[in-house]
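Quick log. Single chain, no ligands specified.
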Amino acid sequence: MHPFRIETAQEDLDDLHRRLAAARWPDRLPEVGWERGVPAGYLRELADYWRREYDWRAAEAELNAVPQFLASIDGADIHFLHVRSPEPDAMPMIVTHGWPGSVAEFLDVLGPLTDPRAHGGDPADAFHLVIPSIPGFGFSPPPGETGWDSPRVARAWARLMSDLGYSRYLAQAADFGCGVTLALAAEDAEHLVGVHLNTLPTTPAGDDPAETAVLTPREQAALAQNARFGRELAGSMKLMATRPHTVGYGLTDSPIGQLAWIVEKFKDWTDSAQVPEDAVSRDRMLTIVMSYWLNRTGASSSQFYCEIADYLPINVTTGRYDPIAPPLGIAVFPRAPFVPVRRFAERDFPTLVHWSEFDRGGNFAALEEPDLFVADVRKFRRTATGKAGR
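-> predicted structure:
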């Protein structure tokens, strides 16, 4: 384990700008808004902003202001942020991103979570934060072998927390980081104080009509939204889960392809009205795109979908999750691609102790709604540990 610093070669930035300037654009695409993917006019303007105005050096400096490390675990080099609180009794917490996620999506919550006293909060709510990049994502190099599925990543996370000296800790996640975190709850239950998720796909068990007959209109709407993901919004998932190599070549060679691939998700999976910037700042979104582009991890991150295609935390036979021992908290943000149904979550998780529903926000809660995210994580921590805040 050793300190890490991002040091981007200027020639890599020059190469990016040349590629953006020489981009080949398709002709005469139908003007149908976002109905068939990212509109050409929007993407051209965003690519021009990326080339002419976006400042990677400023983003690089912001990231480098956060303590970062590389740890060698199970043959992989794992990049992670490690921000210790000034409060001696702070609770350690490991936070896992999803796709197309990055450690950069948590920059706005580092201060409030680690130093609540300095942000008008209760010092009893402080956390020591460990935020790793999944192998093959961002600044974690590709492991170069198969087998890095959710349970293997979870074992690496347990090892990382042990190596850092944390014998009791919380775990937080969204998107498919939730699968990693539920696996972590099985792998390291004796050290895990609680699990907080802001994504959890839930389904009726099998074909039992009794489970769907009692659903409220709101619960039926949640199931319809979840079904839309499988029907319309899961194209990228299906490609990466079946042909990650083929997809990866275009993502690695074309910055326009990588940009469109990610920006589409910031439109479809966030609480945005017209464009992704309604929910997420343009510069932060481009910083996340850069974490894939500069590290050539568009291809290697696609491998993770392939690795977990046959592994789900939900039992594919019964349609139910295996229960976990640690206390579980769920935060529901309405524009996430999956909206959990509480009765199904309670059915599968007897240790569910915390449930919050918000009227705004989507898949990238820490990025879209940092205040709601921070407050809910603090609230869950009090419930899971039995310690009340002021």
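The chain has 16 helices and eleven strands.
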